Amino acid sequence: MAGERTNQSAAEQPHRILPLDLLRGIAVILMIQQHLGAWFWNVNRERLDDNYLNLPLLFLNMLGGLSAPLFVTLAGCGTVLLARRYARPGKRLVFRGLCIMAFGYILNLLSPHWFSLCSWYVLQLIGFAYILSPLLLRIPGRWLHLLPPLILIGTIVIQNCLGTPLSLDNRAMSDTGLPGGALRLALAEGHFPLFPWLAFFVCGMGAGRLMASGRGNRITLLASVYYLTGVILSALYLLDADVTRLPSLVRFFRLSVSFYPAQMPLALLLIAAVLFAVEFSVSHKRINPSAGNPVVCLGRLPLTLLLFHAVVFRELGIRLGFHRIFSEPATLMLIAVIIAAAAVVAHRWQRAGYKYSLEWVMRRIAG
After folding, report:
1. Which residues fall within 8 angstroms of residue 286, CB to CB, at 6 or more apart?
2. Cβ atoms of 297 and 343 closer than 8 Å
3. How far is CA 31 from the centre of its chain?
4. Four-residue CA torsion sign, 87, 12, 200, 159
5. Residue 199, CB-side half-sphere exposure with 13 Å CA sphere
6. Distance in angstroms (rounded) separating the CA atoms of residues 285 and 279
7. pLDDT digits (tens, 9 = 90+) for 96-143
């Protein structure tokens, strides 16, 4: 017991991998700008394709698609790093997962214009993955690296069995009226279902193990394999190979910029992009941010900022009449001001140890 108390005390100190917090802060920025662009901008969305490459907000919206893959993969990294700091991490990981899932359902309740009560969003995904992580941590390294491809293949099998459409809108991703109800959303047809998004979490765990064992350079090799596989599958689809149009196999090859639901090529390319980013952030000595770096501070508050900006700028925006009423220049200016204000608040909050943030509450509840 004395040894465990010592480990826990040390873990409460600011012993963090700050480049990963920096990367998480970038994910927060990408998330906020993507959401605010969609919630503020008054545009004819039926004609967006006419100006797809000419509008800055559309480019930013596409770039914002990296935020969720970053959050989920970094959460996987975090479970490995946290497990190495405690003598008995399993209970702590499970409690953290339960807290994150609870925050997810609180978000559902507070955002009825976005989610139904049973919607399965990124917080439910990460929370459930945390709950699974004590079991996943028992898997040997080489077998852990084989699990994400199996999850991606399993995704296609499940989607084919369910008849999941190749494109899902927000209403469909919150609909519990189909057979399976909420379980169907959690498994394959929610916003961020376990299949395929658990693959990102497991890839993060694999990257975390490589970093912890001093083999971080192998993350690049792993990312390259995912990237080349995604490019090959996409190329076959773009070349109109007959096999890529078979109904039972099209999900293996179809390239789509939307991950609702994520098709195999996009999932592979996103995993590759995130793994490259993780390796770059931890291996380059010039990336050495301080704990007071504003972007690092944003990366310490992803839960708080997700719930706050969703409730204030989407839910209240709809209720108070400032939803999708701004021009593109005004939207860009508002996004910049809001992100800058969030960075200032996060920087000042860091001096108080982020006291009373959702992350602070979770640490008090789950350790």
Report:
1. none
2. yes
3. 9
4. positive
5. 28
6. 12
7. 999 999 999 999 999 999 999 999 999 999 999 999 999 999 999 889
- Cα separation, 142 vs 136, in Å, equals 12
pLDDT band (50, 70, 90) for residue 68: very high
Is residue 326 classed as helix, strand or coil in its secondary structure? strand
8-state DSSP, 107: H
In eight-state DSSP terms, residue 51 is: G
Question: Count H helices, E strands: the chain?
Answer: 17, 0
Radius of gyration of the CA atoms of the chain, in A: 20
Read off the amino acid at residue 290.
S
**Segment 184-201, tens digit of pLDDT:** 999 999 999 999 999 999
Distance of CA 16 to the CA centre of its chain: 20
CA–CA separation, 232 and 234 (whole Å): 5
Which position has the token pair 């007071």?
Answer: 292
Instruction: Provide the 10 A C-beta neighbour count for residue 102.
Output: 15
d(CA 367, CA 364): 6
336 is written with which tokens? 């910049």
Sign of CA dihedral 29, 207, 304, 300: negative
DSSP for 170-237?
TTGGG---STTHHHHIIIIISSS-HHHHHHHHHHHHHHHHHHHTT-TTHHHHHHHHHHHHHHHHHHHH
- Nearest Cα neighbor of 223 from 198, 206, 237 is 206
**Beta pairing partners, 326:** 41
Half-sphere exposure of residue 64: CA atoms within 13 angstroms, side-chain side: 18
Give me 197's structure tokens. Answer: 């998004």
DSSP at 351: T
Give the tokens for residue 37.
Answer: 């662009």
Extract the tokens encoding 215: 């083999």
Whole-structure pTM value:
0.93
